[in-house]
Amino acid sequence: MTSGIATILNRYEPDRTRLIDILWDVQREFGYISTEAAAGIADWLGLSVEDVLETATFYHFFHTTPSGRQRIYLSNNVIAKMHGYREVYEALQRHTGTRFGGPGSDDFGLFETACIGMSDHEPAMLIDDVVFTDLTPASVGKIVEGLKRGDSPAQIANPADLPRDDVAYVDALTRTTVHTSGPVFFCGETDYSALSHHCLAMTPEDVIATISGSGLRGLGGAGFPTGNKWKFCRAATGDEKYIICNADEGEPGTFKDRVLLTYSPKQVLVGMAIAAHGVGARHGILYLRAEYAYLRDYLARQLVDLREDGVLDDGFDIRIQLGAGAYICGDETALIESCEGKRGTPRLKPPFPVEHGFLGKPTVVNNVETFAAASRIIQEGAGWFAAMGVPGSAGTRLLSVAGDCAAPGVYEVEWGVTLREVLDMVGADNPRAVQISGPSGEMLSVATDADRRLAYDDLSCNGSFMVFNHERDLIDIVGDFMQFFVDESCGICVPCRAGNVMLRQKIGLVAAGRAVRSDLDDMVAWGGIVAHTSRCGLGATSPNPILTTLRKFPDIYAARLRERNGDLLPSFDSEAELTGYAQAVAALAPQESL
Amino acid sequence: MTIRIEIDGTTVTCEEGATLVDVAAEAGVYIPTLCYLPEHPVLGTCRVCSVKVNGGVAAACAVKVSDGMRVEVNDPETTDARKALVELLFAEGNHNCPSCEKAGRCTLQAVGYEVDMMVSRFPYQFPERVADHAAETIWLERDRCIFCQRCVEFVRDHETGKKIFSISGRGADARIEIDVELANKMPPEQVREAVDICPVGTILEKGAGYDEPIGERLYDVESVKDRALEPSRKQRK
Questions:
Q1: Between the CA of residue B22 and those of A346, B114, B232, what are the distances in Å?
Q2: Record: contact A499-B88, CB cut-off 8 A
Q3: What is the pTM of this model?
Q4: Does B153 touch chain A (CB under 8 A)?
Q5: Residue B236: what pLDDT?
Q6: What is the rounded CA–CA span in Å between residue B224 and residue B222?
Q7: Do B136 and B118 belong to one domain?
Q8: What is the topology classification, in CATH, of domain A192-387?
Q9: I need a labelling partner for A284 at 20 to 30 A (CA). Which of A43, A141, A148, A582 fits?
């Protein structure tokens, strides 16, 4: 074992739950995770080498081969593609002299990555744990020039040398506009020490009753009643219980959790402490997606503040667990697996985490926004919150608005607001479609859905709100979303792993104008099979981009269909088939060594 | 506690909390499975045992029965979904039954017959998958792997409990790996156990190919369905 690895390992107890932290340290130190390093870690943790690599290779920010001193990850989400992504992509290749998808050079590795939570400032990219936004070919030229000069990404992004645990640093990097102030979120200074005392003066049962009475439902998207979750966890037997904050905000288009963690971190963290008091937990974990690593020092500073104020102490404390690039970890059981240092594979349910969660102990997993709302409910009372919204959907929620509109950013809306009202509020530009709740949600037609309401029984929404105008090619967008699910499927179950590949290929046929009507029927049938038989929510929702656009925009499909010509399917390329043999011979001919 | 559930309209008496696949088999109703191993923790990876439970689709290996549960195994929609999942596996990997060492004792092949699969409705992907010959007694024919995770979860180093098999990568790029150092320590009976636990022809013993004549193998002699339904015949006796 090299001394470098030993130094890293000495920072940790030999405990698998810290494996992702260890892998991050190794990658930061050496640029990648070598087999030798993996062997050192495996020895330390009492695992086989392949077991360590099983975790390492699951997460797309971990590299097991040399990947350049500067690893650049360009967000390839649909919003970026509407704002000059292609030009930035090419400029990056030109300036670094390397290619995306290629082996990279000693200096640079170029990678595409799914949405990094910057849809209000795309194109955007990460260089390890620093984010760069509103990119243009010119700006990436300057950034790469700086890197070549030997400047660090942090120096380039932060020329004023702001301390990395200061909000000014995060603000300088991200600059998200919050368009609303209250009633629940972004409503000014709060004395969190006083709020904490107020909460501790309540009995745990009263805390849970208040949350239940408020009607708060999980704001991550699933909408499970928060009070019930806490009640079940309180009732579950276990010598330890855990509170986990799901800050793995991976749904493309959304960024409101990042903004809450930036401008109202204590509202979130105190929400966790409130939950801990309610369920009787002593440990909290904030699972922060790797894409938000630039928030880590700042959030760590908030934890220090809260300890100084006595809000966090031996009775309940929180640690930050960094993810490493996997959308699936937004699923609460996959997130728990990841916290345990494993692959982010969703567990079979039941048992549910409230009974059998982190390390098998009763665990509450709630979204960032849910904890923030819980703080305000304890502050203002259940009735105050329940009076807002509509029956079954109490209170408000945050929207991350992006796409074709005048004012992207974060908005707070009361449940019950109509699609039209939101579009007016954000200055939508000639909108044709709205992708609500991200790719896993549905694509709405402004022409037919404008008067529908955001509510759990109508348009349930997880905060992602992407507007597309009449100029956008919706089939391309659907293809992009399907590629996202192919890339992000964990692969544990057959329908999601293989079925999404088949659906992606079918939508590719449509886009290429090589599909016939029976291909559409296949997509509906296959989409239903994937949705019904998959193991977790990813597979259950992954066919949605196709299924919802087929319902709402049948014309965009009809316009691309071909008629069947005799016995040959349009997807059969006779030209390619006839030349395929010659191409294969050429490809298989002995290559001269380079 | 003894309870009653309904399977395809027939009332079945069983013990509360038993696994639905087993309950159905005892009642003479075959539900195809690939990853499921009785007496082992449930994997729930292949989804080939999908049935309707109280109107929703669920993997029968992961369902514990409760009183009044209404199960539909043979309704057309889920019957087709199970078949589609088997077809997906055939299209996703490279499965060439006539030349496969495991033919006749391969569960995927046997289940393919049971679900009446003729040809996959999905386009064959012909992926490039590299075989792994690095270990001394075992080799991996990755073309056939269905990622059931049986070997990953159930074959461990006797001395340390470490994983011998694992999965690297994710999604459609995932592949099975073997820890050569640990694999080389496997005693011969554990090697055979690993070969037997693999439902397809991915984990193979070196130097032991074609040791049983085709036509006399596991599923040649008794179909996978009849084997699965043995408990129901025992009960009748």
A1: 24, 18, 10
A2: yes
A3: 0.96
A4: no
A5: 61
A6: 7
A7: no
A8: Rossmann fold (3.40.50)
A9: A43
